[in-house]
Design brief:
The structure holds 2 protein chains of 2 kinds. By secondary structure, chain A is an alpha+beta fold. Chain A is 23% helix and 29% strand. Chain A contains 15 helices and 47 strands. Chain A is globular, with a radius of gyration of 31 Å. In chain B, 57% of the residues lie in helices and 1% in strands. Chain B is globular, with a radius of gyration of 23 Å. Classes of the chains: A alpha+beta, B mainly alpha. Chains A and B meet through helix 1, helix 2, helix 13, helix 14 and strand 15 of A and helix 3, helix 4, helix 6, helix 18 and helix 19 of B.
């Protein structure tokens, strides 16, 4: 066949065979096409634009200047190699941030190995611009948490803070409206703060903004570094191998490591097969043998795949599930839930199943618990009058349960429920609830599941994770989270789901009322885990709903002990997902420590492994990106470092009674700690998280890192007196910076391999200050907020919690009789407030607080030329003013970060409704309303990469205070 | 229209010297679709050219069940906003839709309008554009242009959504003339400016919808309704007038016919006026009916001429999806996500064309890397790849399904893929590889078949 096209194909294939030179590698053609489009000056521009952000990140994570510069270079070399595959061209900053983050983490791990080898502990670089302790704490996790934010929040945050772009510039770059950028920035900061808080790092909005903005200012790229990177880039882009590119060995290794983890298009066809391709079309003689070899290789590959390994080494059965220790069991600590279950006409429903259940918060990680499953605190059935009563342990600690519900189900009826705690609502601290639950007639929901090839997904279990009313229904809270509770429902309960799909992929669900919105959840090893929100109101009831499931991605691997290299039998694993976070999947390894877990859909995953029984070992966490290219499995191996097992008992000082359910955290001292390896990835152990709970007898066991550190204890309820300390003290030096409020604090210091003796930690139970709050007319104030610096119920740091308050009565627990407490009351609706000093005495009749009219302060924002900021958006646009209530006084000198800072509440951002759409007036004026009389306030402004204190003031009752002009620096 | 005897576009009639054979049937399916199964080849060999082309132009409609499934896959794309699932959704249609010609033309128009999600950043908008292209793939060009001018993804891609009367953005107008309708040399800079004015008035209305399915309403107040002189004609032209006047130019019909020729007939030769002239006249006379002109091409003597067989380098989607289609890989044995990733590695990342010109196509498809990737895909399809969710091809099950005797399997596979376009020594080597009839031997043989250079051609 005379065919020009065919000749061309044959020539190409031959050329390919000629190119199969291992030194140059198959990347050459890819690089050639890159060079065709790029030139040096374009790359220099990229370096100039994103260099500071990348360099500051590397410095943040690495400390050492050389390591940081290596990581910097490697990041840009990865860019060259991956330039073609970058999707989000307009968010290159975000892409580079992600790559730099991975490269720096890898470098950190290497540094640690190197240091361990050389037996030397390097100190933080003295030139580090941010060597204060809060910052050190933050800098190790900031980028990781940034990476966990969804794109639409991460990208503007990176542009605005890390790259110092203005809102307008960011809006242009992203092609988003300015308002969208502002709104998402605001939301992004909230999310980031919440995520940091989960790690025990409570930062105010102002200091977070400062910390973010201060990262880049100091990171001008040294010209020598820029030149070296440019040169290496030029050589690399010209298609030469990295060794020829005047790249140092560590940079080359980091670049290769990053590229490997990003999984370039993998060319599985090896030299032999390549040859096979090349010869065909002219002579086919050599082929049989080659193709045969390839088939054999494949078969061998299949034989050695994980799962088919030798017999188990450890003859041991999986460990039994740990019981979650009950909360304080004393008689007064009970809550009663009583009420009646009725149908829609108000007729009582007998034999309805009622349960009180709660979603445990994630502060306490218990790897043995089933994910998503709320705990059933109590259950019962209704009597002939439809009445029920359930008594549970007192619900006090909001940090144990972030939500709690009472729900009822009956055959033929949809679920009815009441939500008693939500994240917005503080814990109701009272003893008895009286509830009426009306159940609607059920509506059967029919659905069908398909895979991406359009085939029925058979035998898939469909769980009802959340049932929510349509938002119009005022009688119920929005929704009830069932998790996968129905797997183990209370006896005889008619909970919705789970259902199993049939051969046609069809399922039907009962137990849900009409118009309910649902979140269905699928867990199946064949398909990716997913939550699917269904709104049957948008469809007719008879209509079948359909959904497609993507194929499962499976993480496989092995967990071993780092010291002995032996497998960890039945290791516990936890995988989160990057897109939204909080989509945890738990797993257990087999007797050989091998595991296989299907996570939610996402692009990168934090995975944590821990030993179920070997209590001396610490958890290990890793973050990895799912490789592109459609691979369905990915291997991750984890090894657990050996720690020191702390054992002991927590008791009440006065009575000697054991304290059950106390939460323990550990702060590892990094300075003057010969065993601390900087950057070692030991899960959350470095971050002082709440990590364990005491048992019913007050006993606890907690593995910690060797060397000096502090065991921190928080009582199970807010009834205990805090032991005040600071971040500086936790680090073994002088008081500084951030307050910490544990209820118990013990210094520990053990050498590796030691077995410390049992310890006793004493907590002091404080008194409860209580009282009533009256309006000026003498009526009890309802709808109140109470803020007090001593109320730190959740973590070890002040996190702006409101003290529970009901019907004009307040209870402030955990007070020291020797002390006096400053408390701030605010009735926003009636514009009343009071700042009062409460002595820590428990009296019979309690204190009486009288509210007075709130004050108002007026201010005009002007620039340095006295020109007003007219119609200036107050949220998300620099300069950005904040109004802050000072809860516990501290330094107002923001530039000296060694000073002990104030604990503040930023619950008013110029306007008490944290709105993204508020503006100053046409004259640049703004009025702060609802100011608590006598309370200390502060105006701070985030401008030009710094947070600056502008005014401190208090207002008198009913007063309108004129604050005059506040000068803010205008952004270009 | 009665065509003269020497007219290359006259309908092909089988004769004993130039019979309707398997080569021609397979050629038709490779060009008008993504290849044929054994049964389809057999059916159309019996049916003859006229009936075969009619079936392609008038396929059976989707069943109710197929419609539901497609709808569900579509919802999955919108819910996940995942560009990989978006690709899988289209590849589903390419593999399983009863209307392959429409899919082939949708791919043609995707390359023509070359809108990339890299800038659009919305699976929802890109999906809508794909549906628009599909809807008008065989319709008339004027309507297609009218709708694409108002399409959300296009308005983002070429900045039409930012184009206001005070400050018209010329990007769309420029590509409209240079790449979509006339080609360079047939308009002047002033025509670009005047057209840009007429295309003003669209703006983006962002929804806070999770899916990012924004609306793009037309705002008459933002549209420039003033007088314009465009391609020599003066009036208060609006976008519809610009499209009308453009399509009145003979250059427009020729420009489109040249592209269609490269797509359906050959990308190795530059067609002369004797070929393009009659086709372009036909297109203009039939009010730019694509169905009409595509029908003329697919029925023509020129189309079936031996010199035009295997004269196009297979694009990655044609190649990778064509393999699965021809082999009738059971749905449970393939992964559309893996197929999408394979196309990307072979240089055709669906919904991410490299630039406004689309994929260069032709010989540029074959580089050292992409040839290797094609080899990888062949190996994955034949031997399976559990890491990608692909099961090994079962040659004997394929033979049974097509009522082929087991010992005939190897020969039948050669016929299926190469239809005799194979060198005798290669044929002998393939038969030797599969001679014992064992599945693995047949797979080895099939791998050799698919690695023949002829397989890179359609």
């Amino acid at each position: 066949m005379a065919n020009g096209q065919l000749d061309f194909v044959v020539r190409r294939i031959r050329k390919l065979a000629g190119l199969a030179d291992p030194d140059r590698g198959p990347d050459k053609p890819l690089l050639e096409s890159f060079i065709a489009r790029r030139d040096d000056s374009a790359f220099a521009q990229l370096l100039e634009r994103h260099g500071p952000m990348v360099l500051s990140l590397c410095r943040r994570l690495l400390g050492n200047r050389h390591d940081a510069e290596d990581a910097f270079q490697a990041t840009f070399l990865v860019l060259i190699r991956k330039a073609r595959s970058i999707r989000k061209k307009d968010s290159l900053a975000s892409w580079l941030h992600g790559v730099a983050f991975r490269v720096a983490r890898e470098a950190r791990a290497k540094t640690v190995r190197r240091q361990a080898h050389e037996r030397q502990v390097s100190e933080m670089s003295p030139t580090d611009p941010a060597s204060d302790v809060l910052w050190r704490d933050l800098r190790l996790v900031l980028d990781e948490e940034l990476q966990r934010l969804p794109d639409k929040y991460r990208v503007p945050l990176i542009l605005y803070y890390l790259e110092g772009k203005t809102t307008d510039e960011a809006a242009r770059l992203l092609d988003w409206p300015r308002g969208t950028v502002g709104g998402r920035l605001a939301r992004a900061r909230q999310m980031l703060r919440a995520r940091l808080a989960r790690r025990g790092i409570a930062v105010s909005a102002g200091s977070l903004a400062t910390a973010l903005a201060s990262t880049t200012a100091s990171a001008a790229v040294p010209s020598a570094l820029a030149e070296a990177t440019l040169k290496a880039a030029g050589v690399l882009a010209a298609g030469q191998a990295m060794t020829a590119a005047a790249v140092s060995e560590p940079v080359a290794a980091l670049t290769e490591g990053a590229l490997k983890s990003m999984l370039l298009a993998k060319l599985k066809v090896t030299g032999a097969a390549l040859l096979a391709v090349s010869v065909i079309g002219t002579s086919l003689l050599a082929h049989q043998a080659l193709a045969g070899k390839q088939a054999n290789a494949r078969q061998n590959e299949m034989k050695s795949s994980p799962g088919n390994t030798a017999a188990p080494q450890a003859q041991r059965s999986p460990p039994a599930r740990r019981e979650v220790p009950p909360a304080d069991d004393s008689a007064k600590d009970k809550t009663t839930f009583a009420g009646q279950v009725m149908d829609e006409q108000g007729q009582p429903l007998a034999e309805a199943a009622v349960a009180v259940f709660a979603s445990p918060s994630l502060y306490v990680r218990d790897f043995t618990r089933t994910p998503l499953a709320p705990l059933i605190l109590g259950s019962t059935k209704t009597d002939v009058q439809g009445r029920f009563q359930v008594v549970t342990p007192r619900l006090t600690a909001q940090e144990d349960y972030f939500a709690c519900w009472v729900a009822a189900g009956a055959k033929g009826y949809g679920l009815g429920w009441h939500q008693l705690i939500s994240w917005q609502q503080p814990v109701a601290n009272h003893a008895k609830y009286e509830l009426a639950l009306r159940l609607p007639r059920e509506q059967i929901i029919r659905g069908r599941l398909l895979d991406l090839q359009g085939q029925p997904a058979r035998n898939v279990k469909v769980y009802v994770k959340v049932v929510a009313t349509s938002e119009k229904d005022p009688s119920n809270s929005a929704g009830v989270t069932l998790g996968i509770l129905p797997d183990n429902p209370p006896e005889g309960a008619s909970w919705p789901g789970p259902a199993l799909t049939n051969d046609e992929g069809r399922f039907s669900l009962s137990g849900v009322g009409p118009g309910c919105r649902l979140v269905l959840h699928f867990r199946d090893e064949r398909y990716t885990h997913e939550d699917w929100e269904v709104d049957p109101a948008s469809k007719t009831t008879a209509e079948e709903i359909t959904h497609t499931l993507a194929p499962a991605r499976t993480i496989v691997g092995q967990v071993t002990f780092a010291d002995t290299k032996k497998p960890v039998p039945y290791a516990c694993l936890l995988v989160d997902e990057s897109m939204q976070g909080g989509h945890f999947v738990y797993g257990t390894a087999d007797a050989n420590g091998r595991f296989s877990i299907v996570p939610y859909a996402g692009d990168y995953y934090p995975i944590t492994a821990s030993a179920p029984e070997e209590e001396h070992y610490l958890a290990r966490a890793k973050l990895f990106f799912w490789p592109r290219g459609g691979a369905l499995t990915h291997e991750i191996n984890l090894s657990l470092p050996r720690g020191i097992l702390l054992r002991g008992k927590i008791i009440e000082e006065a009575s000697g009674r054991p304290v059950a359910g106390a939460r323990l955290g550990y702060w590892l001292q990094k300075k003057h700690n010969p065993y601390y390896q900087r950057g070692v990835d030991i899960g959350e152990d470095g971050f002082g998280q709440l990590r364990a709970k005491s048992n019913v007898d007050g006993s606890f066991r907690l593995p910690v890192f060797p060397g000096p550190g502090r065991l921190l204890v928080k009582g199970p309820t807010p009834d205990y007196i805090h032991v005040e300390t600071t971040m500086g003290e936790l680090e073994g030096s002088k008081p500084s910076n951030t307050r910490w409020h544990p209820d118990g604090l013990v210094l520990v210091n053990h050498k590796p391999g030691s077995e410390p003796a049992e310890m006793t930690v004493k907590l002091r139970r404080g008194v409860m200050i209580h009282g009533q709050v009256l309006k000026p007319d003498g009526q009890a104030a309802t709808e109140l907020k109470l803020i007090c610096g001593s109320y730190v119920p959740k973590t070890f740091r002040y996190s702006q919690d409101f003290v529970p308050i009901r019907n004009g009565r307040f209870e402030l627990p955990g007070c020291d009789p020797e002390k006096t407490y400053t408390a701030f009351f605010l009735d926003e609706k009636n514009q009343l407030g009071a700042a009062v000093e409460l002595p820590g005495k428990e009296t019979n009749q309690g204190a009486t607080v009288r509210l007075a009219r709130c004050g108002t302060a007026r201010v005009r924002f002007v620039d340095e030329q006295k020109k007003p900021f007219a119609k200036h958006q107050l949220y998300g646009i620099k300069p950005e003013p904040f109004l802050v209530l000072i809860v516990t006084p501290g330094s107002s000198n923001f530039t000296n970060i060694e000073d002990l800072q104030a604990d503040a509440v930023n619950w008013v951002n110029c306007d008490k409704k944290l709105s993204a759409e508020r503006f100053t007036g046409a004259d640049g004026r703004l009025t702060f309303a609802n100011l608590i009389p006598g309370a200390p306030y502060r105006i701070v402004v985030h401008e030009k990469g710094a947070t600056v204190m502008k005014r401190e003031f208090t207002v008198k009752a009913g007063e309108t205070l004129e604050l005059g002009d506040v000068v803010m620096k205008r952004e270009e | 229209v009665v065509r003269a005897k020497g007219d290359p576009w006259a309908a092909y009639e089988p004769t004993s010297a130039d019979p309707w054979d398997l080569r021609k049937v397979a050629h038709l399916h490779r060009r008008a679709g993504f290849g044929a199964t054994w049964a389809e080849l057999d059916r159309d060999l019996k049916a003859g050219p006229a009936a075969s082309v009619e079936r392609l132009l008038g396929p059976r409609p989707l069943t109710a069940q197929e419609t539901v499934i497609l709808g569900s896959l579509r919802e999955g794309v919108l819910d996940s906003r995942d560009s990989e699932r978006l690709k899988a959704w289209w590849l589903y249609r390419i593999l399983y839709d009863p209307d392959p010609l429409r899919e082939k033309l949708t791919l043609f128009w995707h390359g023509h309008f070359a809108t990339s999600n890299r800038k659009v950043q919305s699976a929802a908008l890109i999906l809508r554009q794909n549906e628009l292209l599909r809807r008008h793939a065989l319709g008339d060009v004027a309507t297609l242009l009218k709708e694409i001018s108002a399409d959300g993804a296009m308005l983002v891609w070429l900045d039409g959504a930012n184009s206001r009367k005070e400050k018209p953005n010329e990007n769309y107008a420029r590509e409209f003339l240079e790449l979509f309708t006339l080609g360079p040399g047939h308009y002047r800079e002033t025509d670009v400016r005047e057209a840009a004015r007429a295309f003003t008035g669209w703006h983006r209305e962002r929804t806070d919808d999770f899916r990012g399915d924004d609306a793009f309403p037309f705002e008459p107040a933002e549209s420039d309704t003033g007088g314009k002189t465009f391609l020599g004609q003066t009036g208060a032209w609006q976008s519809a007038d610009i499209i009308r006047i453009t399509l009145e130019q003979p250059a427009a019909a020729k420009f489109l016919c040249r592209k269609l020729y490269r797509w359906f007939v050959s990308d190795s030769i530059e067609p002369g006026d004797e070929l393009l002239g009659p086709l372009a006249e036909e297109l203009q006379r039939e009010r730019y009916s694509l169905r009409h002109v595509v029908g003329v091409i697919l029925r023509s003597r020129h189309f079936y001429a031996g010199a035009n067989h295997r004269q196009r380098i297979a694009g990655p989607v044609e190649f990778a999806a064509g393999l699965l289609r021809a082999l009738e890989a059971p749905r449970a044995d393939v992964s559309l996500l893996a197929l999408a990733a394979a196309c990307e590695r072979q240089g055709q990342d669906l919904f991410y064309p490299p630039n406004v010109k689309g994929w260069d196509g032709g010989r540029s498809w074959l580089t050292s890397t992409t040839i290797l990737e094609r080899g990888n895909w062949i190996s994955d399809v034949v031997w399976g790849n559990s890491g990608l969710g692909i099961r090994p091809f079962d040659p004997l099950a394929w033979a049974t399904r097509n009522r082929i005797a087991p010992e005939q399997t190897m020969e039948a596979l050669i016929e299926l893929v190469l239809q005799g376009d194979v060198h005798p020594p290669a044929r002998a080597a393939i038969l030797r590889a599969g001679r014992d009839g064992q599945p693995d031997s047949l797979r080895k043989g099939l791998q050799l078949i698919l690695n023949c250079p002829e397989c890179q051609l359609v």
